[in-house]
Amino acid sequence: MKNINRRQFTKKASWLTGSALLSSAAPVNYPVVHHVFFWLKNPQSVSDRDKLVAGVKTLAKIKSVRQLHVGIVAGTEKRDVVDQSWAVSELIFFSDLAGQETYQSHPVHLEFIKNYSHLWDKVVVYDAQNV
User: Fold this and answer.
1) Rounded to two decimals, what is the model's pTM?
2) Which residues are within 8 A (CB) of 58 and not within 5 positions of it... i.e. 6 or more apart?
3) CATH number of the domain that 125 lies in?
């Protein structure tokens, strides 16, 4: 093994660690994205927010859902271009439009709407496809 100094070792180790983290954190390239934002009827209720988060997580049971990310508003700096008025978001990745269509009529999705829609006041959906 070739001798390297501490600086070279640290540089190489951080590069390898960063590469590993990026490759493990990066989502697989699924071309259809379904992003939903929910506004709660009771926006100050952490309990309602947590119930909705738990409900959204059940959507991962649907086989056409390739990846699911559930989020709440991040504590990032307030800027004019950042909308922090919502409470919960779901970001779902699908392999194709047929998978997204299957999701829409799937019993787990319909059950989610039935069981949790009383918690939200407004929902906005953004569907996108890779170009």
Assistant:
1) 0.77
2) 108, 111, 112
3) 3.30.70.100
